[in-house]
Every structure is written in C-alpha cells, then in structure tokens.
Amino acid sequence: MQEPNDDDLQYSSEGMTSREVLQSLLRWYPGIRTHLDLVALAKLWQRIYPSFVTNATTDFTLQRGVLTVHLSNAALRNEFNMNRDIIRNNLNRELGREVITDIRFR
To answer: Is the entire prediction scored with pTM above 0.85?
Structure first.
C-alpha cells in the first residue's frame, strides 16, 4: 500500500470537513471500511431478525465481500442457506450499497 504524502492529504487547518477526513482515511486504510461494514451488519442483523435468530448467531466475518454467519442452530442454518440470495439482497439494500457479494452460513 502506498503511503500518503503531504500533497495527497488535506489538513484541518485548511478547513477540511469531518466527511472529507473520513473519506481520506477510508482511501488510505481500506481495512477500516471493512470493519465499519461489519459493525453495521451486526447491528442491522439484530434489528431485522427476531431474538431466536440473533441468539443462534455466534459470529460474523466479512472478507472480500463474503459475509460468513455462524449459526448454532442447524435447522435455521439450512433455512438461511436456502434463502441466502434474498438475505444478501436485503442486507445490501438496507446498507445502501453492495457490501456483500456472497453470504455463507456455517
């Protein structure tokens, strides 16, 4: 990864907004975006699914657009696997952009 230099970055003394600071950070440190996306997905998951689903959810990972959801309930895992395209599309729609290219339930 190329390191930022003074010509590429603006400083708050030049009137940089919070949004511009965040966009600059996301450009130079893309791992931050993945982490923020994962946090947003975890909150979204808890908001849209009932407690029996969230209680059976043990872990989330997001790598290169692939969301892996670990479920402790085999019947629920099977049901979600059959509907994974619908779930992926719904989550991406709620996030406002395509964060998830594939979803796996383990």
So the answer is: no
